Amino acid sequence: GFEFADYKLLASTYDVEATVLAAIEFDKKICQINGVICIASDVPLTVATVATKLNLPSITIESAKLAIDKFAMKKRFERDKVPIPWFSSVDSYDHLKKLVKSNKFQFVIKPFDSRGSRGVLRIKEDTNLEWVYKNAKKNSPTNRVMLEQFLEGPQVSTESLVVNKVAYTPGFSDRNYEFLDTYEPYIIENGGQLPSHLDKNIQKAVHDLIQKASISMGIDNGVVKGDIVINNGKPYVIELAARLSGGYFCTHEIPLNTGVDLVGAAILQSLGERIDTNNLKPKFNRPVAQRYLFPKPGKVNSVTLPKWASSDPDISLLEVRVNKGDTIEPVTNHPARAGVVITTGSEISNAINKAESVISSIEIIMEPH
Of 3, 7, 21, 158, which has the most beta carbons under 10 Å away? Predict the structure, then answer.
């Protein structure tokens, strides 16, 4: 990014105080900061704190704190009657055993405050509870763990811009969990596709739920990224992030699918500019699919991409993140995925078939043991 930037400052965005100090010094001595925003990185508290110190538009610090603490978020949703799965904090391994024994459904254990699916694990009848508890706790910066009911049903990723307390949701993607059993107990998503296959009434219910959840979190103006599950025809909030998405959802998939420049609108909002909400409404509904690359673990000897991929107009993005000499570890979280492809097509099936064809045509050869 430094190649394109006019200025740079170095501070960890996960260190709120360090970023605030660096931003204030930059604003005073080098160049006035007119807006602050984050994309793909789960740092809404840093953004909100910098914005507050510099008197710039942003969500409130209270809302940002809810967004980075999944348990606090669920407590707020519970208070405001926003539909969510059953949940509980977990105080100890013994507490986890009691919770699992006293309820007759499947569970997900997760850190209060991690990201990228790190430490998020599915619990079934034969799961080693002590192991999943230690894994989830290890992945929490504050060593706090929660348990929630695993709800069966299709999941969707949403992305919205809230403007004057109204949530506009151009991003609406069916999530693909075909590898749920392959990588269990880890919960690994393999991309998704747009437009959604869900019934129009269910889609409207999801839009309404995002609206209600945004207001519950106190987000009057800002980005909200939703993880939603549909169980027995009713949508539930798994969690809501107060940031632009990673995985090229907001930068590539939403514009390809709808013609909406969500990132541009979010930038305007961060600058305090007026948002024309007509620009947040889909202009069309083009089929788009995304799939990830999951090579087997080992040390990479060579990587060969299909030659035809570079000239195929239906391939919008192809990114392979491993090179010769890299070591591929077993997949335990979303950042471990080794590459991604985004495709379009005249029908959603065409886009999916093209994406899967590209992934299967990437040849990664491992060094012999």
Answer: 158
Q: Return the C-alpha torsion angle 113, 250, 219, 87, nearest 10.
A: -40
Q: Return the axis-axis angle of helices 93-102 and 129-138, rounded to nearest 10°.
A: 120
Residue 28 dihedral angles phi and psi, to the nearest 5°: -80, -40
DSSP-assigned letters across all residues of 237-298: EEEEESSB-STTIIIIIHHHHH---HHHHHHHHHTTPPP-GGGGS-S----EEEEEE-PPSE
AA identity, residue 199? D
- Packing angle of the helix pair 44-53, 16-29 (nearest 10 deg): 40
What's the rounded mean pLDDT across residues 332-360?
94
Amino acid at 4: F
**0.85 exceeded by the pTM?**
yes
Q: How far apart are CA 122 and CA 186, in angstroms?
A: 6
pLDDT tens digit sequence for 86-137: 999 999 999 999 999 998 889 999 999 988 788 999 999 889 999 999 999 9
CA distance 208 to 119: 30
Among 222, 190, 64, 209, CA closest to 117 = 190
Q: Tokens 């393999």 map to which residue?
A: 190
Residue pair 205/351 in contact (Cβ under 8 Å)? The answer is no
